[in-house]
Write a structure and sequence with these properties.
This protein has about 425 residues and is an alpha+beta fold. The chain contains 19 helices and 5 strands. It has a 5-stranded antiparallel beta sheet. Helix 10 runs parallel beside helix 12 and helix 11 runs antiparallel to helix 12.
């Protein structure tokens, strides 16, 4: 039976969360009455809400459970971590709420757009502006780790960040059941892609994950990192978020095609997600749908890459992807798959066309190419991170597979 902490201990937990993350923390009972808080003068209720209770009701707090912390967004700007407090198996004591915070400093343009969207009266506009400028900034990943810590302090159980991400994705799917399956029934014949204003650095990082079908890594990045795609509408924050989402879907379409997804499927997904986006009427849904689209593209690329292989071989490839900076061997893969090493080697070579060891080396060189292109790491740092024997071995292997040395590859001009 789960043993939750006492009210006095929860009060102390709120204080610890606030002191360590500089974000307000509140404890409310199941009737949403405030029991304890530590906020440093930052109020949970913003200028768009009449009182404390109305502010909480806007968070969809009923989605929070005692099994996982819930990371919730309000108005697409204010972020919260919510965990249900439960004693024993049946008694619900209330909720701990950590927030509000924001992923990045909020620009004047975004504040103006939000004020316009919600029709804030003239006499409240200045207080609204001061409120949003006062929100503490905490990155998405740090907020994710704060949710893990909060849960551990309440229940003494350690969750992984991926557990929390999966829970959030499941909630999103419950809100839009069957939407992903609808994509298969609508193939577009043609579509012109127009790339909107975007940040090149973001495209290289986030959309590379889509291109490679790395759904787990993308889930953490896309769900919690703020978009750097620019302010695309100064009159409406909702319109700006829709424009950013459309730009992101456009770029994700291109990345998925480059990753091997059939162009007609990619264009169809783009059409349907953009159409769905235009039908949305609130910022929170736009942000959720944008993340859902990114993950859907990556999942399709992943499926297209591994669909021709057996489950065992596809899982081996995914393990190699996820542990590219570690020493992955045939023996370790065989132990993970619970198979004989010789049998696994034969199966892998039969399906992929090369031995496991050669495939691992090929993937390490592909990773090295990305590091040479997108980082300032030295050759020594790169070969050491990728577990090559020495720089000579790394250089010889790199040239064998690419036709040039690492130094030559790095010196070539790129778009």
């Amino acid at each position: 039976m789960r043993q939750a902490v006492s009210d006095e201990q929860i009060t102390a937990i709120c204080r610890l969360m606030h002191n360590n993350f500089q974000v307000p923390a509140y404890y409310v009972n199941k009737d949403l009455e405030l029991l304890a808080s530590s906020h440093g003068g930052i109020a949970l209720e913003g200028p768009l809400h009449k009182n404390f209770r109305e502010s909480i009701e806007q968070l969809h707090i009923e989605e929070a459970s005692a099994e996982y912390p819930l990371i919730q967004s309000r108005n697409g700007l204010e972020n919260f971590v919510i965990t249900q407090v439960r004693r024993g198996s049946d008694e619900q004591a209330g909720y701990v709420i950590v927030g509000p915070s924001t992923y990045t400093d909020i620009s004047d343009e975004n504040i103006t757009g939000l004020i316009n969207d919600y029709g804030v009266p003239a006499h409240l506009k200045e207080s609204a502006r001061k409120y949003y400028l006062s929100l503490p900034v905490i990155s998405g990943l740090k907020l994710l780790h704060a949710s893990v810590l909060l849960y551990f302090l309440l229940y003494g159980e350690e969750l992984s960040t991926f557990d929390i991400l999966q829970r959030g994705a499941a909630l999103s799917e419950e809100e839009h059941p069957g939407f992903a399956q609808h994509i298969d029934r609508n193939l577009s014949s043609q579509r012109e892609i127009t790339a909107l204003h975007h940040d090149v650095g973001l495209e290289k990082q986030l959309f590379q994950l889509i291109k490679e079908g790395r759904t787990e890594q993308l889930g953490e990045y896309a769900r919690f990192e703020p978009s750097n795609l620019g302010i695309l509408s100064k009159s409406s924050y909702l319109r700006s978020q829709k424009n950013i989402a459309v730009a992101g879907i456009t770029l994700a379409t291109r990345a998925a095609i480059e990753g091997g997804l059939h162009s007609e499927i990619a264009f169809t997904m783009s059409d349907l997600y953009i159409q769905h986006m235009e039908e949305l009427t609130d910022i929170e849904s736009v942000v959720k749908s944008r993340t859902e689209a990114m993950l859907a593209f990556a999942e399709r690329v992943k499926h297209s890459r591994t669909g021709k292989y057996s489950r065992v071989v596809a899982e081996c490839q995914q393990v190699i992807y996820s542990h590219i900076y570690e020493e992955v061997t045939v023996t370790k893969l065989a132990e993970r798959m619970r198979l004989n090493a010789n049998y696994l080697s034969q199966l892998f070579k039969q399906e992929v066309g090369m031995p496991i060891h050669s495939y691992i080396i090929q993937e390490k060189i592909e990773e090295a190419k990305k590091l040479l292109s997108a980082s300032e790491l030295t050759l020594s740092e790169i070969w050491a991170r990728l577990n090559f024997y020495d720089q000579s071995h790394f250089t010889k292997t790199f040239k064998k597979l690419t036709g040039v040395t690492p130094k030559q590859f790095r010196s070539y001009p790129r778009e």
